[in-house]
């Protein structure tokens, strides 16, 4: 039951994040009537979605003009409204042809933009709920002290493990459970033959993967290890999940939770006697 609450919430969050159908339909509709704008906008951000909830065609953007459009966006708390306005106006200036079905398609773009905004809002509300509950957990400070294990990955970790490392016995078992430890595949006289496990907890592996990705960006040793694996011909995902790197991301939280202590990037210097 320890991980049950987190499992319910994080499962719902994963479903929402994985539901790319609405945003894909939005891209397709916008590309059908205003391809220049579709190429210019990052529809994963709120600002472009707010823009599309009000203006969807080159004619509409040229009609309102840059000054009034920037003001309209700022009134809706859009960050970098001037930059977004510049992109929209430039895209409108490149397209002066009205495409068939533009009016109906524009209405669809408006509706889909609103739907994506609602989806993002629900994800944001779930994140707040997860964080509020997670902060009450006795291991919150320990888990989130480790680079790469913030609130959402930390809650995912609890959902997968329950937070009780004694259930696994050793860090090796935790690593196997998360799919980042090799298991023996010996037969007959052949020994030392290792392979990745075929059955493992994909939720936990995702946590380790996220943590490893963070370490690549912010830890020089991890970055060098990643670059070396890439130079050996491994693909990005293979390099990130390579045993040595991934196991580092297992052993650290294991030790922290076992000892009930927070992560320290530099070991404390022993005082002279």
Primary descriptors:
273 residues; 67% helix; disordered C terminus; 2 strands; mainly alpha; 2 domains; two-stranded antiparallel sheet
Task: Compile the SSE list and pairings.
Blueprint: H1 4-18, H2 21-33, H3 35-40, H4 46-54, H5 58-74, H6 81-93, H7 102-135, H8 140-145, H9 151-161, H10 171-177, E1 183-184, E2 194-195, H11 202-218, H12 220-231, H13 236-240, H14 243-259
Antiparallel strand pairs: 1-2
Helix pairs in contact: 1-7, 1-9, 2-7, 4-7, 5-6, 7-9, 9-11, 10-14, 11-12, 11-14
Short summary:
By secondary structure, the protein is mainly α. Helix content is 67%, strand content 1%.
Query: Uncertain segments of ≥5 residues (pLDDT<50)?
Result: 190-194, 268-273
Structural class: mainly alpha
Distance between the ends = 48 Å
How are strands sequenced across the largest beta sheet? Answer: 1-2
Give the fraction of residues assigned to helices.
55-70%
Helix and strand sequence: HHHHHHHHHHEEHHHH
Overall geometry: elongated
What gyration radius follows from the Cα positions, in whole Å? Answer: 24 Å
How many individual domains?
2
Q: Explain this structure to me?
A:
There is one protein chain. The protein has 273 residues and is mostly helical. The chain has 2 domains: 19-132; 137-259, no CATH class. The protein is 67% helix and 1% strand. Strands 1-2 form a two-stranded antiparallel ribbon. It is elongated and about 65 Å long. It starts with a helix and ends in a 14-residue tail after the last helix.
